Structure prediction request, 170 residues.
Amino acid sequence: MRNLALLLTLAAAASCVSAFRVPLYRKSGVRTPRTVKRQTPTTYKENLLNYQDNLFVGEIYLGTPPQKFIVQFDTGSQFIWVPSAKCLSSICAIHNRYDSTKSSTHQSSKLGYNMTYEDSSNVDLNFAGDTLTVGTLKVTNQAFGQALTMNAQFNDSSYGRFGDTHLVWD
Prediction:
């Protein structure tokens, strides 16, 4: 009887939780092996290879009306960022770029940030806020970075990042 009560309680709780889905797509052949240094008195180097050279990307939309971006879902990064229409790097020209003038819900900022990843890829960001849509989830005033410059390390992976973020623009 206790098991039945527990099962009914869990079923009721599960029905209250709403979920959203984000289709992910496999992107092959874009990463190179990296070197990792251990944090010990002696430094060790180890080449890390990812399985079949894959990463996962998906669609997000920013702005009103929505502007579509293909981004890498990156749990090792803390920000969402996409190339900006103001980006002067040649690498930006081959991807969709966020145009703040085309969004009625854009909120500008003077905050900037320079991010360097482990593989020496580097991006200069200007933060902003706008409506973000991921799958069926819609977030208003979501903080994100607009990439103003990106170095050549990004090559064909410069479509942007969707980091593990919890920032909402106020």
User: Anything to note?
Assistant: The first strand starts at residue 24 and ends at 28.
